[in-house]
Amino acid sequence: MFDSEQAYYHNISFRKACRTRLFSHHELEEATNGFEDSRKLMQCNNSTIFAGVIGDGSHVAIHKLSKCENDKDMMQVMSQIEVLSSIVHRNVASIIGCCIDSNYTPLVVYEYPANGTLEDHLHQNKGQKWQKHGFLDWYRRLNIATEIASTIALLHYDKSPPIFHHNLKSSCIFLDDDFSVKIAGFGILNYDNKNCENRERFRLCKNDVYDIGVLLLEIIHGSNQMDSPTLALKKIRDGKIEEIVDPLLNYHDQPRTCQEQILIFADLATRCLLFSGDGKMGMIDVARELVHLSKDSVDGGNVKGLVLEETFSNSSLLQMISLSPDSMNVP
Fold first, then answer.
1. Which superfamily does CATH assign the domain made up of 118-322 to?
2. 88-113 confidence digits (pLDDT tens)
3. Where is the Protein kinase domain (predicted)?
4. What is the pTM assigned to this prediction?
């Protein structure tokens, strides 16, 4: 466990008061052209994210949550929005407002960078408009995965009570012009953060670890249309990694060091899927291994080590992640 007195950072803070803007349902309906299907960025777990443009011309992502069944649900949603909106971190998408109206489903409004989602860039078959922003080569994919895991680990281990995502998908990962991650789409109604029992927290933690395992496979494959994670695991176990690597990465033309990194990355994804359920694999383990892997990556001098250190500035978590894999044991 972490000492709460040490849980202070330059890049993450939790303000005492929620300062989110309150939107009317009509405003957000207009921003998304009536929540039309063509504006959908993500749909799962009874929630949907839409791209929109609000009155001042700002591009936003509007997360439409499950409808509240009673006043308790409504209070829970308001409480969790307040917690999420108070997070100030370079890799968490800022919540700029919400709509809480008893006549409608709750809506959360996130900033939406112009570079789209990770899904947009991985699934080039959805359209060519993202190609002008640059190709997701291996080093960019590795940096993106490292930022995701490191940020989620921070929220798991250094926030009390911990914050879980439990909706981690490539469509919830926004990218800015520098391909830095902005995580959005946090699940809201799944649990009561303040009154969550240890057993429930363990379930949510392992769900996030499993989800990032699936996400790591998608980053390798370039698509979420694999027959199943089980088939991907079989290919990895049989030494046929090249059969699941995104053709755009030109695996066989990559230098040997890059091929080895992809193998290590795939092995990590495998362990997330196999060992998340029994707690043998935590998000801090995922973050630690990706940080070490990214530190070994050199792409024309474009290494994000300093960015990662900024992410964990003054954090005991950075010290724990920096330890060798065999030198620590996280409960």
1. Transferase(Phosphotransferase) domain 1 (1.10.510.10)
2. 999 999 999 999 887 778 999 999 99
3. 35-268
4. 0.83
